Amino acid sequence: MKFICKDFWTTVFKKQIDNLRTNHQGIYVLQDNKFRLLTQMSTGKQYLEYAPKYLAFTCGLIRGGLSNLGIKSIVTAEVSAMPACKFQVMIQKM
C-alpha cells in the first residue's frame, strides 16, 4: 500500500496521499484532502452528489494497480466534504 500512496499516487496526481490508515486485517483507508479531480468543482455541498462519479475512475486505477501486483481487492470511495475524499481498499484473501 505504501507503493500506491507514494509512487503510484505521485505519478498519477502529482502529490502523495495525505493519510493512510489500516485496521491490520486487510482494510486500508487512503485519504486525500485536496483530490485533484474534485478541486475544479465547487467546495460547497452543491455538487456533492455528483462527486462519486468522478471517483469511480480512480477506484479502478487503484484496483488495477494492485491487480498487476497480484493483489485482489475491492475499492470504494466516499466524499463527505469537497474536495476531500477517502478510498477504502479491502484486500481479498486468495
UniProtKB/TrEMBL annotation:
Primary location: Golgi
Matching Gene3D superfamilies: Trafficking protein particle complex subunit 3 (3.30.1380.20)
PANTHER family the UniProt entry points to: TRAFFICKING PROTEIN PARTICLE COMPLEX SUBUNIT 6B (PTHR12817:SF3)
Compartments (UniProt record): Golgi apparatus, cis-Golgi network
Protein encoded by which gene: TRAPPC6B
Stated family: Belongs to the TRAPP small subunits family. BET3 subfamily.
Alphabetized Pfam families for the sequence: TRAPP
Protein's recorded name: Trafficking protein particle complex subunit 6B
Annotated GO biological process: endoplasmic reticulum to Golgi vesicle-mediated transport
Top-rank taxon: Eukaryota
